[in-house]
Design a protein that fits this description.
With 153 residues, the protein is mostly helical. 71% of the residues lie in helices and 3% in strands. Helix 1 packs antiparallel against helix 4, helix 2 packs antiparallel against helix 3 and helix 3 runs antiparallel to helix 4.
């Protein structure tokens, strides 16, 4: 390695840029999968509830003992749907913040963004949205960002 030449100085910089762009692209694509799958699940839930599967009507007609027998207690939406919508919002918000920080030129911000992307992917794993691929892409992108930027000067 020659010190002070353009080759020696640019080789590390170019490798760092490639690692940053790969981590950023993986994280952004994973976040897009998270948003797509979360919106599909919420839309399906809204369609399911809007087709008469509430207020005591199921796919077999009116329940014999009332709507409370099948898990509906008079709420306007199912409680798990509200929880799922909140998780989708949290994952997308944390993921967007992480991807935005990963696009920064400041090393500390990039590392903080990588950590946020990893946190968002870990939150999304139990809910299985992002078609699982989204969570994996975000996790790999965040780890790649931490590994690459941890060694960059």
């Amino acid at each position: 390695m020659t010190s002070g030449t353009a080759n020696g100085a640019d080789a590390g910089t170019a490798r760092g840029r490639e690692g940053r762009s790969a981590a950023l692209v993986l994280s952004a694509v994973g976040l897009a999968f998270q948003a797509l799958a979360g919106s599909f699940a919420l839309a399906f839930s809204a369609l399911w509830l809007g087709r008469g599967y509430r207020y005591g009507y199921g796919y077999r007609g009116f329940y014999m003992m009332g709507p409370w027998m099948m898990g509906y207690f008079g709420y306007p939406i199912y409680p798990y749907t509200a929880l799922y919508a909140a998780l989708v919002a949290v994952v997308i918000a944390v993921g967007l913040a992480g991807v935005a920080l990963m696009a920064s030129r400041d090393r500390e911000r990039r590392m903080a963004g990588s950590v946020l992307v990893i946190v968002a992917s870990v939150i999304a794993f139990p809910t299985m949205f992002g078609f699982i691929v989204g969570s994996l892409l975000m996790l790999v992108g965040g780890l790649l960002g931490l590994l690459e930027w941890g060694h960059a000067a």
